[in-house]
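Sec-independent protein translocase protein TatC structure dump, as promised
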Amino acid sequence: MSLAKDQEKKRKRESRFLKWIKSFFECETETAYSEEISVHIEELLVRLRRSIVAFFIALMVVIFFPINWISCPLFHIYCSSNELSHVVGAEYIRDLLKWLGYIPAMVALLRLITLAINSMGVTAIICNAEGLMNAYIMIIIWGAILLSLPYIAYQLLCYIWPALEEHEKKMLRNSILAVVGLFLLGEIFAFTIVVPFGLKLVVIFGQVAGAEVRWCLSDVINFVLFTAIVTGASFLLPIIVYYLVLIGLLRPEQLKGRNMRIAFLIIMFIAAVITPGGTGVSMIAIGIPMFVLYYLAVRMAEKAVKEREERQRKQLGELGKGGGIKFESTK
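structure tokens r here:
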């Protein structure tokens, strides 16, 4: 009898745990369409708590997850190309796989970044214990942010979703895809062109001066993260311009002609500020793609505004015809 009761209690505990896990992935709740403000505030707090829990789980993953669980099965695939192996630091992974012990993800990530930096001719050194700790903290925090960001965005989306109209939901879906795509494009551009070019530029200037380039590890990681984040954010400029035109704060006519040339100069100025070295080559390397995206955004916004005005004219025409029929029938 006691065994049956214990099994029943165990099943109840398991069902409660599974229900708690499932609640983290529920989008629409029973209170989503309530008109009481207190209910929406309570739901917002619940989703905020879930986001905080997700961030701390991601934090623990970056700190404690044994990276060799992934690197060992992927070793042969990862190192199949000699050229790719040289770029991403396969020598470290080869040494890593010789270990039989525990290898935290944060250690592997920091080591890979260090090897990638050293391969560009910049010697990353540890200036002091505080700098090493800062490097680890930055790796941990940004790794946790990147891991938890999709879930946090999902919770935010679920909170505002019930309040949106159908056309707004469609617009939001397209916007999410555009934002993610452009930001990833900016990150790829940063890590393949801007950051390597900036580091090599530092090496060239050092060689011209006859000095060996040594850089504190924490400063290098600050430089890489800042450049990557700013470059990714700058690639979101077309989305901002597109929606400013769409909501009526800007008109397509204001962004063309002479103002287009002014926008080109502003974009080049932004590129000069965010690119390392501030040389003309680095400024053009990031400024031209930004301007092309800006131009495409203006054209897309212009097309969207014309389509909206055309729909409004058709609706007004249909209303006018309907009003005419009613007037004739009353007379």
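The chain has a mean pLDDT of 73.
lmk if u need the other ones
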